[in-house]
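Q: What would this chain look like folded?
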Amino acid sequence: MASANLNIMIKAARKAGRSLVKDFREVENLQVSVKGAGDFVSRADREAERIIKEDLRNARPNYGWLGEETGEEAGEDPTRRWIVDPLDGTTNFLHGLPHWAVSIALEHKGEIVASVVFDAAKDELFTAERGDGAFLNDRRIRVSGRRQMIEAIFATGVPFAGRPMLPATLRDLGRLMPLTAGVRRWGAASLDLAYVAAGRFDGYWERGNQPWDIAAGILLVKEAGGRLEPIRGENPLETGSVVTANPQLFGEFAEIIRRPD
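A: My prediction, written as structure tokens:
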């Protein structure tokens, strides 16, 4: 049975997801216009965050808030805050690619205690609560059991538009790809982590994330039995870097990613 907080999160994610799916149907038509879909998608993103914020604030008005679009707001309860990405995978959404998600996490005293990642285009709802396991549409999920790097598929984000993490990521790819069954770059960190939790990917790493990109996915992986650490530092929400895999592959995988230049 989900807690009251998780039920509130699921309701908000589904409501925002319905709004986004409706908007997503318009994107393909907008791609061929002179103006393009950018302004439309920005409005869809902001509207999804408004829906989530309204639902969560109505249910828990004393909790804090950290959202991609509206930033950080302190709550009367300093120990709890929502961490929200209303549309993770905006570029996919903009290009009519059905791989994006609503991501909602609840943080309590610096720890993520409940998570929802909702892939509305595929109607896949990933949920977790601390100590209660991870689920996909009410079915318990676990990380993969693969033990050999050559059998494993990993995911990452490749920096674009001149972002500074590109050289490090290219070095990672050069070291990793000859040893594995492949690397995927699908453009939505929350779903990359959810797919690790579900055993679809064997591991994931990325630098330069924002807290709302990875907060919900962190708990999904841990509750599904995966190992997850920052690439450097102590807290992935603070450093923005994360490396995760199933327990059998984590040591070798993390050593490759953390190898000095």
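The radius of gyration is 18 Å.
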